[in-house]
Amino acid sequence: MHLHGIHHVTAITADGPRNAEFYGGVLGLRLVKKTVNFDDPGAYHLYYGDANGSPGTALTFFEYPGARLGRAGESMVTRIDWSVPSTAALDWWERHLVGKAATERHPDYLDVWDHEGLVTRLVPVDGCENQAHANAPHIPGDVAMRRMIGVAAQSREPEHSALVLESLGFQRDGGEWRTGDGVRSAAYRLESSDGEVATSGAGTIHHVAWASLDEDHQGWLERAAAAGVQATPIVDRDYFRSIYFREPSGVLFELATDGPGFAIDEEPDALGLALRLPRQHEHLRPLLEERLTPIPDPWAPYR
Ligand code: ZN
Asked: In the predicted model, what is the mean pLDDT of residues 38-61?
C-alpha cells in the first residue's frame, strides 16, 4: 500500500472572479468544478485542473471575499511545483506572463506569483509532454502545465515529521520526501521555517491532499492512527472521500480517493460551468446564487 502522489492542493483566495481569471485565464487550467466549501457553504470552492480535474492536477480554492492576505510560513505548504514539457516552455511562460504576473526565472525553473502572493513553480520534466493537460484554447499544448510534482512546506523541526512520513510510505530522497511512482509520484520538501509567524489568509495554502486508492482508504485510516496522528473519520466529499490530520510539523494533510471524480454530477463538456451543490446544501441554492459573486467561464474570451 502506498500513496499515489498528490491528489489536490487547496488554497485560499479573497476574490473568486479574479482567481478564475488568473488560474483559468492566464495559466490556462480548466475550471472543472464550481461548488461550495462543504463545511462552510457560504464560501465558494473552486477546482482547476486538466481537462477532467484528474488527481495530481486538481488545484482548488476556498473563496472568502475580503479576506486579508495571509503570510506563508511555518506549518504550511508554501509553494506548488508543476511540470511543463521543456525548458523552451519556461521561455514561453516567461514571455506570456509579462504584465500578468510577477515571475523570477532560474535556469531550471520559473517561479510565478499570483495577485495574492501564492507561488507556483514551473519545472521542465523530461517525458511529460504526452501527459494530459487542460486543452485550453489559448495555451499551446507543448507548453501547457501538466501535473503537480511536489510541494514545499516549512517546519520548525523538519526531523520531527520523519517517523509519520515513513509510516505513510514516504521515502527520503536527499533533502525531500517522495511518495508514489512513475507519473503519479510527488515530492514533499520540508524546509526549516524562517522563524516568522505564518498567518492563514488569502494567498496561502490550506492543505495538501495525497492520493489513495479507493480500496486502501480504510487501511490508511488505521495506518494514521498507528502512527499516532489524530485523524478524522472518513468524510464524504461527493467527488472523493477524505481523511484529514496534521503531520507533526503542523501541515494539514488529507488522504483523498481517486473516485468517484468530478464527472458524477456534470457532463464532461460542461464541467465547471454551473454551481454544483452537495445534496445536504441544495436547499441553500436560492440564497447562495444571490450571495455568491458569479464567476464567468475563464476561457470564454479565448473560445
Ligand atoms: Zn482537500
From this structure: 97
CA–CA–CA angle 232, 206, 183 (5° rounding): 85
Instruction: Kindly give the distance from the C-alpha atom of residue 10 to the centroid of ligand 1, in angstroms, as a whole number.
Output: 6
* Cα dihedral sign, 172-6-50-214: positive
Residue 173 C-alpha cell reads as 530522497
Paired strand residues for 218: none
Residue 67 C-alpha to ligand 1 middle, in angstroms? 20
Domain assignment of residue 216, given as a range: 6-302
Report CA(126)–ligand 1 centroid distance (Å): 29
Question: Could you tell me the CATH number of the domain that includes residue 226?
Answer: 3.10.180.10
- pLDDT score of 179 more than 90: yes
Is 0.90 surpassed by the pTM of this model?
A: yes
pLDDT value, residue 163: 96
**How far, in Å, is the centroid of ligand 1 from the Cα of 255?**
8
Q: What is the mean pLDDT of the chain?
A: 96
